[in-house]
Amino acid sequence: MSLRALLCFLALAATGAASAEDGRPAKARDMILSLYPENCNADLATDFEGLEDVAHAVSWQEKDWDGAPIEREGTLFEINCYLAAYNIVVAYVFAPNEEVMEAMLPVSFAVPAFTLDYADDDIDQTKLAAPPSVTGFSAETLLVNPSFDPETNTITSFAKWRGLGDAYSSGEWALEDGRFVLKHFVIDPIYEANVEDPSEELIETNFVLYDAAGN
User: Fold this and answer.
1) pLDDT in tens, 169-196
2) C-beta of residue 115 within 8 angstroms of C-beta of residue 131
């Protein structure tokens, strides 16, 4: 990130506690544009109908210092960044409504890093030399084809590795204590559409790289 972009981001974050009526949706978009000036299209919503930014009202429960439950509220801004051939890339900005909490900030999402090797004799990319191996985790602020479920406060992504969508990666993050926490991440590295009559087993093959219930 350039120094100019960083300074713009800090200035926007400092003023981010304003109410929605004071222009928080515009501030959220400006924040993302300042962070990703080369990756986010400022005219996307104007050029493509249905790609307007969205503001989601969210609420969650935390515990006070004495263990008493506290109801929190905030706003999740969904900022459409750019269109690829078969994917849309989106950033999220989270703004707690209470002044005592930190100002609006971009949401970071934990994502597994992994190695992937296809078999030497595999020309169709349908056979792996070994199962994918998780090497660690990184933080991403841009998600591909995400959707937000207000009933569960969950964001789910679905990144197609090509237009057919036979190979993909998908993550799930849930809002907990004011943060989006990784719950599940799966990849399907098998390009079964490359073979004429793929088996059901090949079509259904995928690898869970992280699951909060089992890790």
Assistant:
1) 999 999 998 899 999 999 999 999 999 9
2) no
One-letter amino acid at 144 equals V
Nearest to 81 by CA among 51, 117, 119: 51
Q: Among 207, 198, 185, 209, which Cα is nearest to 126's?
A: 198
Give the list of residues 6+ apart from residue 107 with CB closer than 8 angstroms, or none. Answer: 76, 91, 92, 93, 94, 141, 180
Q: What is the pLDDT of residues 136-173, one digit of tens each?
A: 999 999 999 999 999 999 999 999 999 999 999 999 99
Residues 6+ apart with CB under 8 A from 76: 55, 56, 58, 92, 93, 94, 95, 107, 148
Query: In 3D, which of 73, 33, 43, 82 has the Cα closest to residue 55?
Result: 73
Alpha carbon distance 28, 134 (integer Å): 33
